[in-house]
Design brief:
This protein has about 250 residues and is of the alpha/beta class. The chain is about 25% helix and about 30% strand.
């Protein structure tokens, strides 16, 4: 590495303000920011083209592949610096051989020390020699004139309304590309989705509670919501949840 040449870096962070701040600090420190990304999948597509760069700055929590998953899937060896707002991720990051770790909000003086270590070759490249981790299946969500990608494992259930399928996550719903629940089921054949009503499709592992209703029906709790389960679906749901026999039958 030429110690006099500016470091060529790429950064990824799903928070626009945090991403802009880090980009500015890197530029002010003499780096050349080649590209910025708001999520992991497009970053991996960019890296697949094998651009010439000196380091990758990764936010750990991002839509799609997380920063940790991106680091595990690097197509070629590359020094990685993790950037996150949470100290809880530090052990996971260092288990992936991360040689540096920045906490948000990133301080200029702390960043300078990291850049000095990069220039001195003290942050060893990682990636390029691991088996690629399986990229999670993603739900395509409409976002203005564009699209974003949501990990299916973060979706609790799907709801169809007026020819639009809505994906629910963290108590909020987002319009998807689909018009019917049949399309959703066909897109995720291994996701163990269960139709509890004509307009509702759930991931059983997201259920936090179940209470009986009359007529061998049930009410399923997902987050702060309660969703009514049809009689036929109740039997299937009990089986999926490992419930044997009755669980408080009501007349």
């Amino acid at each position: 590495m030429d110690l006099k040449a500016p470091l060529k870096v790429v950064l990824a962070d799903d928070e626009p303000m945090a991403r802009a701040r880090l980009s500015r600090l890197l530029s002010e420190a003499g780096c050349e920011v080649l590209a910025e990304f708001g999520e992991g999948s497009t970053l991996l597509e960019y890296l697949a083209q094998r651009p010439r760069l000196d380091a990758l700055f990764l936010d750990i929590q991002m839509p799609g592949p997380s920063g940790l998953e991106v680091a595990a899937e690097l197509p070629f060896p590359l020094p990685v610096v993790f950037v996150t707002a949470s100290r809880d991720h530090s052990l996971d990051a260092f288990e992936l051989d991360a040689a540096d770790y920045l906490l948000k909000p990133v301080r200029a003086e702390r960043l300078i020390r990291t850049l000095d270590r990069l220039r001195a070759g003290l942050i060893q490249p990682q990636g390029g020699n691991r088996e690629p981790a399986q990229v999670p299946q993603r739900v395509i969500i409409k976002a203005g004139e564009g699209l974003v990608f949501l990990d299916i494992r973060k979706v609790t259930h799907f709801e169809v309304e007026e020819d639009t399928v809505w994906a629910w996550t963290a108590g909020q719903r987002f319009a998807s590309q689909w018009k019917t629940l049949n399309e959703v089921e066909a897109s995720f054949p291994e996701a163990s989705l269960l139709r509890i009503q004509r307009h509702l499709l759930i991931r059983p592992e997201c259920i936090s509670g179940l209470r009986p209703l009359s007529g061998n029906r049930a009410m399923a709790r997902i987050g702060e919501q309660e969703l009514e389960v049809s009689r036929t679906a109740t039997a299937l749901l009990k089986k999926a949840l490992g419930i044997k026999g009755e669980f408080g039958k009501r007349d």
